[in-house]
Each structure stands twice: as C-alpha cells, then as structure tokens.
Amino acid sequence: MDPAAFFYTSCVRADGWRALTRFHTDLEYQLRIQEGFGVSGVLGALMEPESAREGDVTRAGVMIALYSPRYFRDRGAGLEWSVFRSRMRHHEDTRGVPARGCLIPLCWKPVTGDEVPEAVRKSVEIPGAFDWLRQYGLESLAASSESEDEARYYALVEQLAKTIAEAGRTDLEPLDAPDARELSPEFGSEGLSQDRESADAAEVPEEALPADEEPEDTGIQARGPRSVAISYVGADQPWADWMKEVLEQRGYEVRQRRWRAGREDLRDAVAQARDEAERLVVIFSRNYFAAGDTSPTDWAEVFVESRDRASPDVLVQIDATPRPLLVRDAQVVVLAGADLLETEELIGELLPEPPQRSEDRGSGR
C-alpha cells in the first residue's frame, strides 16, 4: 500500500467543508498514532469529476465514502465509487478472496431509502459497526461541541482507524488510467455540476495534499507590503488553501510555506516564512503542535519572544487542542466553533484590506 494514500475520503464539499476536513484530519492523526507518522490520507471532494480517473482513489488502500443525499447525486463521487469498486473486483478475480472492508460507507447526512442508488444499495445497507450513524449522520457529531457528542465522535474515529488499518492489509492493486477511463459512474449525473459550483462559493476550497507530497519550492521571493506567508503543516492543507483564497480576494499576495517537520525545525521553518512576506499567518492545530521534535522553549522563542516585531505574526487556531505550555499566553485567535462567515470576518479584522486595494475600491477601479 502507498503510505501517502493510506486511505481516501470520498465526499462532496457542499456537505459542510469545515466538518469534513475536521473528520478527515482527526482520522489521519489517529492512524498516524497507530501506524506511524509516515502514513497519510487523501481528502477527495473533487473540483472536476473526471479527475477521479487519474486521482488518488486509483491507488488508495481504503476508501471512506461519506454519503448523503447530495453525495448520491454527485458525478465525481459516483466515479470515485466506480474506480474503487473496480479495483476491489480485480482483487477478488485475481486472488480469489474478497477485498473485505476496503470500501467503508459512512452516513454523513441521513438518506431515505429511495435516495440510495440501486447500484450501491447492497454496499450501503450491509450491516456493520457504524450502522447507528444512519439515524442522525456523522456530520452531527463532527460539527457538535457538546461533550457527549465529542466523546462518541472520538470513539468512532479510534474504532474507524483500527478498521482502516486492518482493511489496508488487503493491498489492492492500483488502477491504470486507461482502464479507469473505460468506467462509468455508479451514480450521479452531469447536471449536478451546479451543486458543486454553489458549494465552492460557500465552502472552504481545495483538497488536501498527501502529507509527504511537497509543493514546488520556488525559493525566497521579493517581499511586498501586501504580501502574506502562511505557515502550516501538510494535514492542514485545506485550511491553508482556503485562507490563501480569502486573503487573495482581499488584495494580498499570498505564499504558502509548509513546515516540513521531517526536514527542518520549527525555528527555521518560521524564519523562512517570515522572510518571504511582510506578514505571517500561522495555522495552529493539533497537527501543527504534534509535528517535529520541538521543545517547549522553541515554541516560546519563535512565537512569544518575537511579539515585538514591526509586523507581528497573526496566530490562528483551527481546533480546540491545548497549545504548548509556553505559548498559551500568546495572542491567538481561535477559529474553532465559528461558522464560515464569522471566520472570514475574524480574518478580515486581523488582516484588513491593504491600503492600495482600499484606494482602488474607493476610486471605482
């Protein structure tokens, strides 16, 4: 199995991108605790349905299908399902044993019986350990801040991670692009592209990169008064992508600076990000705090002792994980619990539109 695609989360971003990314990231983190930090998951929610024929679903070891009424109308999800089921059938035909547990349907939002396509009904309705989700849906847990729901949610994530690890040992063969191009979607239609476009306008964009896949390094570029660098770790790529789009819409030049914790320490990663732009946004999260071999004094040196810089860092936290002890008094804006509009407003307060953009708007240009 490719450790960079240990599992694949098939979903549609219009079903609530924030809760979807939280679930995927939490599941990936739990798997890394179990299997080692070299494994990663891939978050689907394709922008272009046909890209499923050459995407990570053609090589991932396990597919989690977060189904909902919208999911079953989505052509991209239907192609992902078709590609993965083809790989399972090939395994069964060539090895003579079922690819048991490799496709894991989970109810994200409740569906009625007539909303389940006949082609996948058997897979969706087969009895299993997660049947209880069908009443309210996994989203209700992933989006909840109630302590009882949180406990059930994390228990589910832990159980699911064990299920994925076991199923991943099946070792499905990848599907070649020519073979994938011959497949038809199991469900969904061309006409649902409008759903996808409307979701893009309301939800956080872009899919996550595998944690070991490096974006192209173009070196340090010239800084500008309207430039912002984003420091983050690979598991939080969806947030970095969304934040980049929000800031670009406000008139900033944005550069993503991913912290490659296996190759550089925190001080070097943040120093290089600061060198690349006038302002620095740091995306704090459980993943960021767990990355690298970072001592408590390193956190303080990088984020607390540097608060008097001419252009102070903007520290945002996307979850409720306790911060390292020596940075708990740092000025951090916690986005956990805020909806999408509130989050954009908070970012707008931290980084208002740069002066030139405001002047252009005022002059009608």
Give the beta-strand count. Answer: 9
Q: What is the makeup of the main sheet? A: 5 strands, parallel
Q: Cα distance, first to last residue? A: 53 Å
Number of helices: 13
Q: How would you write the strand order of the largest sheet? A: 6-5-7-8-9
Shape: elongated
Structural class: alpha/beta
Order of helices and strands: EHEEHEHHHHHEHEHEHHEEHH
Rg, nearest Å: 21 Å
Low-confidence stretches: 190-224
Helix content range: 25-40%
**Strand-residue proportion:** 5-15%
What average pLDDT do the residues reach? Answer: 82
Question: What features would you describe in this structure?
Answer:
With 365 residues, this protein is α/β, with parallel strands linked by helices. Helices cover 39% and strands 12% of the residues. Helix 1 links the parallel strand 1 and strand 2 (41-43). The model is unreliable at 190-224 (pLDDT under 50).
What's this, in brief?
By secondary structure, the protein is α/β, with parallel strands linked by helices. Helix content is about 40%, strand content about 10%.
Which characteristics define this entry?
alpha/beta, 4-stranded parallel beta sheet
Give the helix/strand layout.
Layout lengths: L6 E4 L6 H19 L5 E3 L19 E5 L7 H21 L7 E5 L13 H5 L13 H4 L4 H22 L8 H4 L12 H10 L24 E6 L4 H13 L3 E6 L7 H11 L2 E6 L1 H5 L5 H8 L10 E4 L14 E3 L5 H11 L4 H9 L2
